[in-house]
Design brief:
The chain has 27 helices and no strands. With about 500 residues, it is mainly alpha-helical.
Length: about 500
C-alpha cells in the first residue's frame, strides 16, 4: 500500500505537522482523512473501510486513500521546500532581485543584495547558484569599480572546478551504491578506492564535508549489512582524517562533523576497540554542548545507544540497563540492546516480557530497522525460550527460524548461523549433551571464525551462550572474556 509507505516515511514531527496540515484543509467536520492517517501510523491496516465507514465500502475507501495520498505528496513537497531548501530559495530570490536592480540602475543596492545571495550560496556550497552570482558580477563589472574582471574570471573558474568535482562525486556515489547492492562484492575499501582512482577524486582536496559524511555513511551501512567492520575500518578512519585535514570545522558543517564522530566511534566499538570508541563518544558529547537543542535531541538516541553498548561490553551491564531503561524512547535499536543487557544477566522472564511487547510482524520491523535486527531478535527469542524451558515453543520457533532465514543466510554466505541454531536445538532437546566431549568437539569444529579481532562482536555474543553451556560458566563472564581477549 503506497500510502502506508509514505506515512511510514514521516518522522514523528512530520506526522504531527501533516495531521495539522490536513485539519486546516478540511472544510467540514468529517475527518476520515485524519483518522485514516492515524490508523496507518499505528500499523493498523486491516478492514479500514469498515472501521472508517461502519460497513464495507471499498470504493469510498479507495477514493479517500487517493485523496490523502495526493495531500501527503503536496505536503512533502511544500514541507521539504520550506525546511530543506529555504537557503537555496533565498539565495535565488536575492540573485533575481539583484539582477532587476542592476537593470533599473540601482547599482549600489544591487551590489548589496547580490552579496547576500553570494553569502547564502557559500553557506550551503550551492555551486550552481554561485556560478550565476559570479556571472552576474562579470556582466555588470563595468558599472562597479570594486569588481575586477580578471579576478572574477579566476573566481568563476575555481567555482566551476568545485561544481565539476561535486558532479564527479555524485557519479562515484551512485556507482558505489550500485556496486554495494551485491552482497558478495569484493572488500569494500578496494571498491571505494578504485572508484575514486577512476574518477581522479582526492579525499582531502576534492570532497566537501557533506560528501565525506555520505561516503562514511554508506561504508558503515555496508559494513553493518555484511557484519564486517574490520575490513572497512581503515577506510572510515581515512575519511575522518580527510575531515580533520580540512582544519577547524566551521559551525555550518557541525551537522556532518558530529555524525561522522558517531560513525567512527561506532566503528571502533564494532571492532572491540572500546577505549577509542569511548574517547570519541566523549568528544561527541563535548561538541554537542555547543549545538542547538534540536541537534542535541536528534543525536540523543544514537549517543545513549552507543554508551549503553560500551557499558555492556566493558563489564558494566547493570549501568547499561539503567541507562537504557531511563531513555523514554520508541527506538527499536535501544529496545533490542536493553533486551541484550537483560539476557546477559540471566533475567530471562524479563527478556521474554520485553520481546512480547514487540507485537508487529518481522516484515514490519525489517522495513524499519533492517534484516540484521530481525535476525538478532529471533535468535535471542529462541535462546530465551530454551532458558525458560518452553519446550513446545522452542520446537516451533526452531522450525519457523529455518523457514524464515535459511535462504537469506545461504545467500549472504552465513550458513554458520544455521549451524549454530542446529547445535542450540540439539542442546535444547538434551541439555546433558553440553558436558560431553563429543558435543564440545562439534561446537569447536562447527564454526569458521575469522579470529577474535576480526569477528563481529554480536556473532561472538551469541556464540558465548553456547560456550557458556560447555564450560558451565555464567554467560556474561564468557561474553566479556571473548570480546576483551583479542589475542586468540
Amino acid at each position: 500500500m503506497e500510502l502506508k509507505i509514505l506515512v511510514d516515511s514521516l518522522s514523528e514531527h512530520e506526522l504531527h505537522e501533516f495531521l495539522q496540515y490536513l485539519a486546516k484543509k478540511n472544510r467540514r467536520t468529517d475527518i476520515k482523512n485524519i483518522t485514516l492517517v492515524k490508523f496507518l501510523a499505528k500499523g493498523d491496516v486491516t478492514n479500514l473501510d469498515v472501521k472508517l465507514y461502519g460497513k464495507s465500502n471499498k470504493n469510498a475507501f479507495y477514493v479517500l486513500c487517493a485523496r490523502v495520498q495526493e495531500a501527503l505528496i503536496e505536503f512533502i513537497g511544500s514541507y521539504g521546500f520550506e525546511h530543506e531548501s529555504a537557503e537555496d530559495f533565498h539565495a535565488l530570490k536575492y540573485l533575481l532581485a539583484a539582477r532587476i536592480l542592476f537593470e533599473k540602475g540601482a547599482i549600489k543596492m544591487a551590489s548589496k543584495v547580490l552579496l547576500k545571495s553570494e553569502n547564502l550560496a557559500n553557506t550551503i556550497d550551492a555551486y550552481p547558484i554561485l556560478a550565476e552570482v559570479i556571472q552576474t558580477k562579470i556582466q555588470f563589472a563595468h558599472l562597479i569599480p570594486d569588481y575586477s574582471l580578471d579576478s572574477l574570471v579566476l573566481e568563476l573558474e575555481a567555482n566551476n572546478k568545485k561544481l565539476q568535482t561535486a558532479t564527479r562525486f555524485n557519479i562515484a556515489y551512485a556507482q558505489i551504491r550500485a556496486r554495494l547492492k551485491n552482497d558478495n562484492s569484493p572488500e569494500v575499501s578496494k571498491e571505494l578506492q578504485q572508484i575514486f582512482t577512476d574518477l581522479e577524486l582526492v579525499l582531502e582536496e576534492d570532497l566537501s564535508y557533506k560528501s565525506l559524511y555520505q561516503l562514511m555513511t554508506i561504508t558503515a551501512t555496508e559494513a553493518n549489512l555484511q557484519r564486517n567492520f574490520y575490513a572497512i575500518s581503515p577506510y572510515i578512519e581515512q575519511l575522518f582524517i580527510a575531515l580533520k585535514n580540512k582544519g577547524e570545522v566551521p559551525a555550518k558543517y557541525s551537522y556532518y562533523y558530529v555524525r561522522m564522530l558517531h560513525l567512527l566511534a561506532l566503528s571502533f566499538f564494532r571492532n572491540k576497540e572500546f577505549k577509542k570508541s569511548a574517547s570519541l563518544l566523549s568528544e561527541l558529547e563535548d561538541v554537542l554542548v555547543g549545538l542547538s537543542a534540536v541537534e542535541q535531541k536528534a543525536l540523543l538516541k544514537k549517543r545513549i545507544l552507543l554508551k549503553g553498548l560500551l557499558l555492556l561490553y566493558t563489564g558494566k551491564v547493570m549501568e547499561a540497563e539503567i541507562l537504557l531503561k531511563g531513555l523514554s524512547s520508541t527506538s527499536l535499536d535501544v529496545k533490542l540492546v536493553l533486551v541484550m543487557c537483560l539476557f546477559q544477566q540471566g533475567k530471562y522472564k524479563e527478556v521474554y516480557r520485553e520481546l512480547r511487547l514487540l507485537k508487529k510482524s518481522d516484515n514490519w520491523y525489517e522495513e524499519r530497522v533492517g534484516w540484521a535486527w530481525v535476525l538478532k531478535k529471533n535468535i535471542i527469542e529462541l535462546l530465551t525460550l530454551i532458558e525458560l524451558q518452553e519446550h513446545d515453543l522452542v520446537h516451533a520457533k526452531g522450525q519457523q527460524f529455518r523457514r524464515k532465514f535459511k535462504s537469506k543466510l545461504v545467500a549472504v554466505q552465513e550458513e554458520r548461523v544455521l549451524t549454530f541454531i542446529r547445535l542450540v536445538l540439539a542442546y535444547a532437546e538434551n541439555p546433558s549433551l553440553a558436558t560431553t566431549p563429543d558435543f564440545e568437539a562439534k561446537v569447536e569444529n562447527a564454526f569458521d571464525f575469522k579470529g577474535r579481532r576480526q569477528e563481529d562482536i554480536f556473532v561472538m555474543s551469541f556464540y558465548a551462550w553456547l560456550k557458556s553451556k560447555l564450560t558451565q560458566q555464567e554467560l556474561y563472564a564468557v561474553t566479556l572474556d571473548l570480546v576483551s581477549n583479542l589475542d586468540g
